[in-house]
Design brief:
about 270 residues, globular, 2 domains, alpha/beta, 13 helices, Rossmann fold, 9 strands
């Protein structure tokens, strides 16, 4: 895993909170650490996203809007100051805006590798070509159940219902033997998801672990390369990779079957031929 000093600067008025979270996880998986995490936004955005900023360890840089590009200018000025003071190896700008091209050129002249992260549907080809490499992340809308849970519950008034006459009451339910209750509960309880832990993955060769990964990532079985951040997201959703586990460590332990590209700062994974 890389030991580079990495700086993440987010144009929070341009990318969603979901994309910010994906960007933080991607960079932590690739570099093992993020030394600077800043999001440039309006005061309203800082208030509405404060829970996410706190959870992700992002420092909001509030900009009192004075014009159309005032947030972009604040990010650019801060980027130059930070590069001169902190001397990072890698600077990552999370924005789909093409206006940062002059900043990217200047940071590269200062000896930094400049990477870009944008949101799908907002990022044009001209934006991606400016950076040393660029990753496009898809914004995932919250599930309907989560959206419903976030809405305040409506107060409802219920009419009083008169109790049913004694003759119309339902007959008492039959008692179920205790042993049968225990058995039915055990059958209904789902088995916990299995994770490809470090102990399992280290038992090389491990056909079960390899087959589980290939079933989750069918593109690899078809001989295609797959973006590492996409592979990590699917492995986590399938519970094949723990929330705090390292994808680089997993693939390193299964290196006889899988290969990360490029070796120094991997962004792709493929099945060894």
């Amino acid at each position: 895993m890389s030991q580079d000093r990495v700086m993440l600067l987010i144009d929070a008025d341009n990318v969603s909170v979901d994309v910010m979270e994906q960007a933080v996880r991607l960079l932590l998986n690739q570099h093992g650490g993020l030394h600077v995490r800043r999001a440039y936004c309006t005061a309203e955005s800082a208030v509405s996203n404060q829970a996410a900023f706190k959870r992700l360890g992002i420092k909001p840089m509030v900009n009192l809007a004075a014009g159309k590009n005032s947030t972009d200018i604040a990010l650019a000025v801060d980027a130059i100051d930070l590069v001169l003071a902190e001397r990072p190896d890698v600077v990552v700008i999370a924005s789909s805006d093409s206006d940062f091209a002059p900043l990217v050129h200047r940071l590269r002249e200062k000896g930094c590798v400049v990477r870009g992260i944008g949101q799908k549907g907002k990022t044009g080809d001209e934006t991606q070509e400016v950076y040393d490499d660029f990753t496009v992340l898809e914004h995932h809308k919250p599930a309907a159940s989560e959206a419903a849970a976030s809405k305040p519950a409506r107060k409802t008034t219920r009419k009083a219902v008169a109790p049913a006459p004694a003759a119309e009451k339902a007959a008492p339910a039959k008692k179920v033997p205790a042993a049968r209750k225990v058995a039915s509960r055990a059958a209904a309880k789902p088995a916990p998801p299995q994770e490809v832990t470090a102990e399992v993955a280290s038992a090389v060769p491990n056909p079960a672990a390899v087959q589980a990964v290939l079933a989750c990532l069918p593109e690899l079985a078809a001989g295609k390369n797959l973006a590492l951040n996409v592979a990590v997201q699917r492995l986590r959703e399938s519970h094949l990779l723990g929330k705090n586990s390292s994808s680089l460590k997993l693939f390193a332990q299964l290196s006889d079957q899988f290969e990360l590209l490029p070796a120094s700062k991997p962004t792709q994974v493929r099945l060894r031929r």
